[in-house]
Automatic annotation (TrEMBL):
Pfam families: CHAD
Organism: Chromobacterium violaceum
Domain of life (superkingdom): Bacteria
Family matches, as Gene3D superfamilies: CHAD domain
Segments for region (Disordered): 1-22
PANTHER family linked to this entry: CHAD DOMAIN-CONTAINING PROTEIN, SLR1444 PROTEIN
Position of the signal peptide: none
Transmembrane residue ranges: none
Name the UniProt record assigns to this protein: Uncharacterized conserved protein
Domain CHAD residue range list: 31-297
Length: 297
């Protein structure tokens, strides 16, 4: 990892990446039917996911897990946007399988960030006090989470998921109403309203910050999907603001997860005296950064 840069900061914006293991913007046209647009978006998300699963099975790098998780989130967002087209028992099963896989990858991703970013930063602040017991426990937990990812990717549930998705996409009914730009505008407007309402809360609980993070990601993915439709002159500005918001919310989320995991897994005799104080300060600073950004926007 590059010194002084977080895992989050090192990622290239997905719409600029030519790397096959990262997300790409699906090429859409305004005169497409909604069924055609969903197929193109979903196939891109599936390509992104399948480009990263071999590395998860074969190695222990953090990035493939992150990219696979992003691919699943993007696909779930697309299915939600085009929900009138994906009703029925089989689509419900696809959605359930995606949620199941996202949960497994999510646990692995949280542990990666904790091990590669949060723990080294805490150790630097503690200086002489050792976090070796935490590092050992975290290493074992990461191995278990990687094993869980590999078990999931070897399961019948996973092997049936891509063919099931492709079969569902092949059977989508033709859909010209509403027109794609109309549906896209409605979706973005609805998602913007949700994000703005969450931001407008006078006080935020941990759960509210988490919900804002989830809804902000959905809005960002939707805005990326519809980039080619050029619905607004402010598309780039919106994406920039959403990326900045996600970085701040990610810092807050990482601080919360770090405190919960460390205090739960460290025995009292292995917990340095200043650790809880440092963890609480990191959360407070992350929250102050979020509140400051809200006041400026």
């Amino acid at each position: 990892m590059a010194k002084g840069r977080s895992l989050r900061q090192q990622r290239s914006p997905s719409h600029l990446s030519a790397d096959r293991t990262q997300a790409r913007i699906p090429r859409l046209q305004a005169d497409m039917g909604c069924d055609q647009a969903l197929k193109r978006i979903a196939l891109e998300c599936l390509r992104h996911l399948l480009a990263n699963t071999p590395a998860i099975c074969e190695g222990n790098e953090a990035e493939p897990v992150h990219q696979a998780r992003v691919a699943i989130r993007r696909l779930r967002t697309a299915l939600a946007i085009f929900s009138p087209l994906v009703r029925g028992r089989k689509w419900k099963a696809v959605s359930g399988d995606l949620k199941w896989l996202a949960g497994i990858f999510g646990k692995a991703r949280d542990l990666d960030v904790l091990a590669l970013e949060t723990l080294p930063a805490l150790q630097a602040e503690l200086r002489d006090a050792s976090l070796a017991p935490a590092a050992a426990a975290l290493s074992a937990a990461r191995q278990d989470s990687r094993a869980a990812c590999r078990v999931a990717l070897a399961s019948r549930r996973w092997t049936a998921l891509p063919p099931g998705l492709l079969k569902g996409l092949a059977r989508l009914p033709a859909c010209r109403q509403p027109a794609l730009p109309v549906l896209a505008n409605q979706s973005l407007k609805r998602q913007r309203k949700t994000v703005c309402e969450l931001q407008a809360e006078s006080r935020h609980s941990i759960g509210q910050w988490h919900e804002l993070r989830k809804q902000g990601k959905k809005l960002r993915y939707a805005a990326e999907f519809f980039t080619d439709l050029r619905l607004s002159r402010n598309d780039k500005r919106l994406l920039g603001k959403l990326q900045a918001l996600q970085r701040r919310l990610g810092d807050y989320n990482d601080a919360i997860i770090g405190r919960e995991w460390l205090l739960r897994h460290l025995a009292p005799e292995d917990t340095p005296e200043r650790l809880e104080q440092i963890l609480s300060r990191r959360i407070r600073l992350a929250e102050e950064s979020l509140l400051s950004a809200e006041h400026r926007s």
